[in-house]
């Protein structure tokens, strides 16, 4: 059964467009966070990579991304399984042909997708910082923006089979994700995990006995400013997503803003408390990761929970993100300089689950009530881990076989800025004397 | 992340599988288990109508996925002593 196309008034369309125009602030914020948590010798490379990733993602999304993502009620390929229609991929023409850019819900969804795929594309940069080649980043972004993101976004936002779980199988309202905890954060975070596995850790990260060495971020000011900038972007992201894909009215965006802020605040404070308790002093980078994890978790839930519940979700997100950073680094030997895997994948997955645990999602009258909502969310999580992770790992593994993504050892020693760009981010400051020592 | 080293936690990833061939096989098996777990979840949604059995099989599918994820994690070796 097809999901009906939502109707938008002119006011709602104007609100939605304004919120979408705020999303680049989230991209800017994450870029600053990733750069601040990396080394000085790779700062310009990371900023340049982010700009390239966002640009490539937008162009690829124009070519084929929206054609495969689509929008509810528009053309799609449907398989019939057991008498039920399984809408698995959109059937729009390439290059946005037949899409009138007139403020209709479909055109707003296309604009939203073009910006949000850029946000998803910069998430893996934090995990690959200091060792991921620019050409590899560009090629990997093509795969993310042209395949992984549109496919999963269609299932969730384009009236696909996950969104239809309520109509077809009585699982609440089907899989629900207002602002992209799954489609943007978890997809980007799982891609970051794949990249971290494929690239391996930075040289010098692990000692002979396998213990990780601390390689602290180079600029805490950038990190914290990035966090505050990201909040403004997330307000736009969550509000626009909820208007487009969850059927809420413009008035509901006040609640969405409050919930987003509370989730991030509670998560960051929880991370600060945990690091204070464990290490004696609060850790800036982990607190920043907690903030981003709270934002990532808020995206799915922002339209469906009360403020106190949003704060509770944030507290649990802060615990999860902080402990998982340590788990990835110490137990799994995954080197993730920006904390992207913990903040985005773990935060996003927790946000998706918390819709089922805390959310009040109105099920359609044809569905069997709201009792199966948690199961729909679990099916979505199972799809992310059981399908999206192997898909994104496989695509990037193949890419790595064709075009190695890790920089040569001398490039890593010299720094990505000088090796790949020929100039550093801070040319007036000589911070690494070994870069200029004749060997 | 610039995390402070904690001597109480020792890294484990891939420590048991030093042979590259065994690690590759383990990785492939892990990814196949991830896909198999997802298949169980989908089959439960399509084939089972009653709420309790459907939920049980969906959770069983996610359990299979967890097993596959554990294998994939173990298949990625812990690096040792790469000097900068």
Care to describe what's here?
The complex is a heterodimer of chains A (439) and B (84). Chain A is built from 15 helices and two strands. Chain A has 439 residues and is mainly alpha-helical. Chain A has one domain (25-429): Orthogonal Bundle (Ammonium transporter fold). In chain A, strand 1 (76-81) and strand 2 (84-90) form a beta hairpin. The termini of chain A are far apart. Chain B is mostly helical. Chain B contains two helices and no strands. In chain B, helix 1 (20-47) runs antiparallel to helix 2 (51-75). The radius of gyration of chain B is 18 Å and the shape is elongated. Chain B starts with 19 loop residues before the first helix and ends in a 9-residue tail after the last helix. Chains A and B meet through helix 10, helix 11 and helix 13 of A and helix 1 and helix 2 of B.
What's the topology here?
The complex is a heterodimer of chains A (439) and B (84).
Chain A: H1 10-22, H2 24-37, H3 43-69, E1 76-81, E2 84-90, H4 105-127, H5 134-157, H6 165-169, H7 181-199, H8 220-245, H9 253-279, H10 284-301, H11 307-331, H12 340-358, H13 373-402, H14 409-414, H15 416-421
Antiparallel strand pairs in A: 1-2
Helix pairs in contact in A: 1-4, 1-8, 2-3, 2-4, 2-8, 3-4, 3-5, 4-5, 4-7, 4-8, 5-7, 5-13, 7-12, 7-13, 8-9, 8-10, 9-10, 9-11, 10-11, 10-12, 11-12, 12-13
Chain B: H1 20-47, H2 51-75
Helix pairs in contact in B: 1-2
